[in-house]
Amino acid sequence: MKLCTCRIFAASGSVLAMAVAQPALANTSAAAPQFEETRTDLEPRAENGRQIYEASQFTRFAPQTALDMVGQIPGFQISQVSTDRGLGEASQNVLINGQRITGKSNDAQTALSRIAASSVIQLEIADGATLNVSGLNGQVLNVITKPDALQGNFAWRPQWRRRVEDFWINGEVNLSGKLGKGDFTLGLSNKDGFRGGGWGYEDVRDADGDRLFFRDVRVRSQGDRPRLAGTYSLKSDNGNILNANGALEFFEFRGNRTFLKQETGKANILEAGKDREDEWNMELGADYEFGLGGGRLKVIGFHRFEHSPFVNQFRITPTDGSAESGQIFAQVIDEGESVLRAEYRWKAGKTDWQVSAEGAFNYLDAESEFFRLDNAGVFQPVPLPNATARVEEKRGQIILSYGRPIAKDLTLQATLGGEYSELGVTGPNGNARQYVRPKGSIALGWKPSPVLDISAKFQRKVLQLNFGDFLASVDVRNNNNNAGNFDLVPPQSWLLNFEANRSLGKAGSLKLKVDLESISDLVDRIPITATTEAPGNIDGTARRLRTEINASLLLDTIGIKGAKLDLIGAWQTASLRDPLTGEKRPLSNRGRTYWNLDFRHDIPNSQWAYGGFAEDSSDYGFYRLDYFGRDYRTGPMVGAFIEHKNVLGLKVRGQIINLAGQTEGYDEIFYVDRRDGPVDFTHTGRNKYGLIYRATVSGTF
Question: Is residue 467 part of a domain?
């Protein structure tokens, strides 16, 4: 659950997460390869319209897990977990032994990180429309594995930064092997933990640009996310297949923000914000597939629960002894999702059919309290309407899927169906509504030559609501509050995806992706009363266009043996009709541009590798009815690493991040009343966080 509406500088974790998660900087290890085994050939072989990579082609990277191999496939990127409601059709572009990965937190990256590299036979890339898995299009990876003996791997990633607590407990350990007649994986990790913060300033000026006051800013944050997760799979002699997975996770967050307010002619004022969260969550999933009639029936069950208590506090203390002021917003949220799904597929000639039925129950139960400091220094409760309530949705859907080749090298996949939803809110001012929404898609996969494949998909989607948007909340520092809105409905969209992949053989690959989307009932900021606002569905249609170019270049062809250069460039435009002004403007909180460059060189006939990365991005900013804000970064994030693949049998890497001295900034405009009126004051802020040092020690056992 999102912790708070306050600003926590990106250096607390998000920027660093991007910096250390790039494919060229993947934290991998294994028993180091011998010099004579080192290969530099990453050209796939073509077979039945698929690109085939043998496990031995990744020897030079000394991979420890299947994820380490996948991260080095030229031009391939693992898609993010779908935020669609329920389980639905397959969405992640990774299969394991032809099976989709069931679950949400059990995503492709997590699953692959627990599969030992020695268990991988080969990796196959095909167009999703050619596979007998409904919902997939574009490049899809199928990881073929074999049963293996018990084995494990680990990675330890300590990190150091100036003025920030050293982080010693970032790491993971995984086990995999046989259990009875099946295979299991088990992992314990804190790889998503972080230690962050920075130092800087905030300049506050009036509408004429004259300084009102100045703040020195210090930010500290830390989070730990220990997670225990495992899977079990079994294929019986009669062909029946069982898959099960489970996870238990804890998240502890502590954030501290201090501001020293300095105003000419007045005593300094100390402003302090404290944020904390103590969450735990669990997830269970299982599926069982067996033959029935002339086809195969798969039954899938899934359940997730999350308990999230958090507190945001902000206190203002004048240094001249004047009365203090402050606010506390505390909330306990329990949310859950249960899904039961059945898929029956059969083949009739060259045609693949599937019918699926799914029932889901989602809920969010929130209890909230708001306090304000009185003149006696005691926090007194303040009523906060619409902050305590329960949101529920019961949903059912049926989808029919059809797929077949319609010409040489041209495949069609189509789905048609609909969903029924009951959405309700209990508590004061609660309500309930019912909806019937059509859903469907049509996808084409075309391979005009052995080195070129093109895919397109057009679909009608029902998007996921954030149940937290129904509830009132408080920004305890800036008073950018949400009034709560019980009348939200799920947005719907028409989405067109286009993807073209061109193999360059031994030179690498090129990819072009285009997404065009038209969204109705989009959730944005709308007025609730003359002075309050909340997330709400807006009239009209929002439009989004995103283009991405991806190039993976193997530099052997120009004489740099063992070198690889990956480049990504993305641009997005997204607009809507502003519910306040009636004019067109960008969508809030949407990325505008992104680019990334990754270089890695595995020196032939040695155990050494080195490389680096650079990346940058820009956003469109965030709109409220009385506010506009934009976060930005001053220049790219740049990092470099050096790695040895056999230090007493371990892989050891040293890494430095932020070599270009990137800082973070923000500009904010606060209006007297609404955003179409006069400006009240502005904030301009800057945050530094210096160099980041990270080591990685990893190995197998």
Answer: yes
Q: In sequence order, which residues have a C-beta less than 8 Å from that of residue 459 and are 6 or more positions away?
A: 415, 439, 440, 441, 442, 494, 495, 497
User: Cβ of 615: how many Cβ atoms within 10 Å?
Assistant: 20
Supply 462's token pair.
């029902």
Position 97 in a domain? yes
- How many structural domains are present in the chain? 2
Can you list the positions of beta strands (E) in 465-607?
492-503, 508-520, 523-527, 533-537, 541-554, 563-577, 584-586, 591-602
Please check whether residue 691 is in contact with residue 162, taking contact to mean a CB–CB distance below 8 angstroms.
yes
Instruction: Tell me the percentage of the chain whose pLDDT exceeds 70.
Output: 93
pLDDT digits (tens, 9 = 90+) for 396-438: 999 999 999 998 889 999 999 999 999 998 877 778 889 999 9
**Rounded Cα distance, 631 and 646, in Å:** 42
Lowest mean per-residue pLDDT among 204-208, 351-355, 531-535, 583-587: 531-535
Least confident stretch, 91-95, 302-306, 552-556, 672-676: 91-95
**β-bridge mates for residue 639, sequence order:** 613, 657
- DSSP assignment of 341-394 equals EEEEEEEETTEEEEEEEEEEEEEEEEEEEEEEE-TTS-EEE---TTSSEEEEEE
Each residue's pLDDT tens digit, 472-516: 888 888 777 787 888 889 999 999 999 999 999 889 999 999 999
Q: What angle do CA 244, 139, 182 make, to 5 degrees?
A: 20
Quick check: 112 and 70 in contact, CB under 8 A?
yes
- Which amino acid would we find at residue 599? F
CA dihedral sign of residues 104, 110, 111, 114:
negative
Q: How far apart are CA 423 and CA 488, in angstroms?
A: 9
Tell me whether residue 171 is in a domain: no
**What pLDDT does 130 receive?**
75
Q: Which of 459, 523, 465, 526 is CA-nearest to residue 493?
A: 459
Beta strand 508-520 pairing with 664-671: unpaired
What are the pLDDT digits (tens) for 318-358? 999 899 999 999 999 999 999 999 999 999 999 999 999 99
The answer to whether residue 624 sits within a structural domain is no
User: Are 88 and 401 within 8 A, CB to CB?
Assistant: no
**What does the pLDDT read at residue 119?**
86
Identify the burial level of 328 via C-beta atoms within 10 angstroms of its C-beta, where 0-12 means exposed, 13-18 middle and 19 or more buried.
Answer: buried
Q: Using the 3D structure, point to which of 503, 537, 558 is the last residue of a domain.
A: 503
Boundary-marking domain end, from 461, 484, 503: 503
Task: Tell me how far apart the alpha carbons of residues 418 and 441 are, in angstroms, rounded to a whole number.
Answer: 11
Domain region containing 377: 323-503
By percentage, how much of the chain surpasses pLDDT 90?
Answer: 65
Asked if residue 11 has pLDDT above 70, the reply is no
Range name among 24-28, 144-148, 292-296 with the lowest pLDDT average: 24-28
Q: What is the CATH number of the domain that holds 47?
A: 2.170.130
What is the model's pLDDT at position 532?
A: 85
What separation, in Å, do the N-terminal and C-terminal C-alpha atoms of the chain show? 36
The length of the chain is 701
